[in-house]
Every structure is written in structure tokens, then in C-alpha cells.
Amino acid sequence: MANELAAFLAENTQRKNLKVAVSARFKDVNGDPVLWELCPLSAGDMQDILAAGNAAAEFSGKGRRQRELLVALLAKSVVTPDLTAAELQDSYGVMGAEQLLLAMLSPGEFSALERAFVSLNLDCGLSELTDKAKN
């Protein structure tokens, strides 16, 4: 029984950050695309963002609220670049991580970031485990 419990201890879980090239526009000194880093969110992180979004819900429509929640989730997940950096926000003429994200990325780049977020946070790997169990 102790072995079963050990699998659930925080230090034994396998949640790792994901690095992904969201765009070829952001290049390092060698001209290579700079990787964005995303961290996995917890269910608690998501609940906090949803709760914060409830205050604004009465002022916006359902579709607009869903978009705002998606942007908030993405901004919370992005580790690199630091979306809270004043210098970066100033360079785009915006205030706040969410507004910076929207200013920095084209629609296609935003979609690439969203796909990376989904693969990191919403794919729990159960399909792979199910396939292994079948074989």
C-alpha cells in the first residue's frame, strides 16, 4: 500500500515544462528561433483564473469570455519570455501579460502557442496507456 501512495507524492510526479518554437520571427544571436517555455498548470491554477474571470463575465459575452480565459491561461503558462517584464511590455506599448501576448503574436503564432499549451496541459497520456494495456 505504501508503494501505491508513493506514486502520488509530488516529488514522484512527472510534469515537465515544454519548450516550443512558436515563431521564426523571434531569433537568437545566431539567427535560430528562440524557444518559448511553458509550464504545466494545476487544476488550482485553472480554478483561480476561472474565478477571476467570473467578475468580468457580466460585462462580456460568452465567446469573448472564453477568449479572455484562454489568453489568461496561456499567459499563466508561459515561462519564457517573461511576459511580466516591464521592458518587454513597454516595447509593445501594452500593460499586462495577457495584453503583451496578444500584441506579440500573429494569429498563427497564437494558435501554435495554444496547441503547445493543450498538449502540455490537457493531454494526460491516457490514450498511450490504454494502447499499452490492450497489447
Overview of this structure, please?
With 135 residues, the protein is mostly helical. It has helices spanning 2-6, 43-57, 62-77, 86-92, 97-104, 107-121, 126-134, and strands at 18-20, 36-38, 78-80. Helix 2 runs antiparallel to helix 3. It has a 3-stranded antiparallel β-sheet. The two termini are 27 Å apart. It contains 7 helices and 3 strands. Helices cover 56% and strands 7% of the residues. Pfam families: Phage_TAC_5.
Tell me briefly what this model is.
This protein is mainly α. Helices cover 56% and strands 7% of the residues. The chain has helices at residues 2-6, 43-57, 62-77, 86-92, 97-104, 107-121, 126-134, and strands at residues 18-20, 36-38, 78-80.
Give the overall shape, derived from the CA principal axes. Answer: globular
Radius of gyration: 18 Å
Q: What's the tally of helices?
A: 7
Q: Major sheet, described briefly?
A: 3 strands, antiparallel
Helix share of residues? 55-70%
Q: Tell me which oligomeric state these chains represent.
A: single chain
Q: How many runs of DSSP E, i.e. beta strands?
A: 3
Strand order of the largest sheet: 1-2-3
> Poorly predicted ranges (pLDDT <50, ≥5 residues)?
none
Mean pLDDT: 84
Residue share in β-strands? 5-15%
Helices and strands: which structural class?
A: mainly alpha
Helix and strand succession?
HEEHHEHHHH
Cα end-to-end separation: 27 Å
